[in-house]
Amino acid sequence: MTSPPTEHLQRLKDLPDYLSGLIIGQEHVIPKVVPTLQNGELGLADPGRPKGTFLFLGPTGVGKTELTLLMCGYLFGDAEKHCIRLDMSEYQNQESLQLLLGQNETSRGNMGRFYDRSEGRGFILFDEIEKAHPRVLDIFLQVLDAARITVANGETLNLSQFYIVATSNIGSEALMDLKNSSMATIERFIVDLAAAELRPEVLARFNVRCVFQRLGFKAQKQIAGIMLNKELKLLRKKGHDLTLGAGVVELIVAEGVEPRLGARRMRTTVESHCRHAVRDAMLNGRPTSGELISQNGRLVIHS
Ligand SMILES: Nc1ncnc2c1ncn2[C@@H]1O[C@H](COP(=O)(O)OP(=O)(O)OP(=O)(O)O)[C@@H](O)[C@H]1O
Ligand SMILES: [Mg+2]
Questions:
Q1: How many other C-beta atoms lie within 10 A of the C-beta of residue 216?
Q2: Is the CB of 221 under 6 A from ligand 1?
Q3: What is the CATH number of the domain that holds 252?
Q4: What is the domain extent for residue 166?
């Protein structure tokens, strides 16, 4: 086999640093996913199976989807195009099989449509796997096992150029009561619950199982910092040159994070506060460049 080009190898070596820089507070997860991704890209995955299979367990809003999109974007370029997202809460009854695979000999369902968009490579993300109808779960097992799926028109789609990610929030309510336990105890608890709730043959088929943790305060602040800097970069491009001043990160964390929702609302909180500050300055004829500070529960610009 000819060796992949040097820059491709370098990118694969850089993958852990890239993911660690953007996924915060889940340091134990990155070393688990990286070897499988590198195997997949170096042609070391099992033939006739997906390039890699991941089960991401843990509470809502803590980085499971974010990590999947980052991995997909890094390896395939455009995460929107190459990540097929299937929310299993939309596939809970028998009829949903038709939605997924098509209903007659001329149709190919959502799967066919998404497959075409992805050009036959990327990631397939099955969210809330525990909600899938048993028949849909059968299809899922077939995907994990044989990397193929047959749609209604009889065509078999080859999924061997995909990584498969399944996520579940199983046990996350109970996790609230375990917040003082060690990581190892929490992991065992969640994996045992998942084993009891999902079919054992499903659980056994994943290359990698990761339990994501609730985000601590330090991680929340770090995520707020990343999102704020991204927003400031965008505003700078529009001519509003802002720096981060006192209390900004704390305000964003206080409003953007909830124990039961994780960092799910952080991005919209960052956007609405920063844009409010700029809008207010513009409408009132004040400078839109300067230092952002927190004042009476809002952000304002000090010039
Ligand atoms: N660990 C993290 N590092 C960086 N950003 C994060 C992290 N966790 C959450 N976020 C931010 O919060 C948003 C919501 O997180 P994400 O969509 O990954 O949640 P999830 O774990 O998939 O939850 P769900 O189980 O509800 O699907 C992300 O888009 C990201 O901006
Ligand atoms: Mg998600």
A1: 12
A2: no
A3: 1.10.8.60
A4: 6-211
Locate the ligand 1 atom nearest the alpha carbon of residue 59 and give its number: 25
Ligand 1 centre distance from Cα of residue 63 (Å): 3
Is the same domain home to 183 and 57? yes
CATH of the domain at 67: 3.40.50.300
Q: Which ligand is nearest the CA of 57, by number? A: 1
**Consecutive 10-residue runs of the chain (303 residues): their mean pLDDT?**
81 97 96 98 94 94 96 97 94 88 93 96 95 88 93 96 95 75 85 86 90 92 95 97 95 90 91 97 97 96 91
Give the position of tokens 């397939």: 124
Amino acid at 68: T
Q: How far is the CA of 162 from the centre of ligand 2 (A)?
A: 18
* 245-280 tens-digit pLDDT: 999 999 999 999 987 788 989 999 999 999 999 999
Specify the pTM.
0.92
Shared domain for 55 and 84, answered yes or no, is yes
Q: How far apart (Å, rounded) are the C-alpha atoms in residues 230 and 227?
A: 5
Extended beta strands in the chain, E state:
52-57, 83-87, 122-127, 148-150, 156-158, 162-168, 208-211, 242-244, 290-295, 298-302
Ligand 1 pocket test, pick from 20, 66, 123, 226 with the greatest ligand atom count within 8 Å of Cβ, gives 66
Tens digit of each residue's pLDDT (9 = 90 or more) over 130-176: 888 888 888 899 999 999 999 999 999 999 999 999 999 988 877 76
Residue 64: CB within 6 Å of ligand 1?
yes
Q: Which of 187, 211, 235 is the last residue of a domain?
A: 211
Residues 222 and 204 both lie in one domain: no
**Taking CA 66 as the corner, what is the angle to CA 291 and CA 27, rounded to the nearest 5 degrees?**
85
What total number of domains does the chain contain?
2
Q: Which of 211, 246, 268 is the last residue of a domain?
A: 211
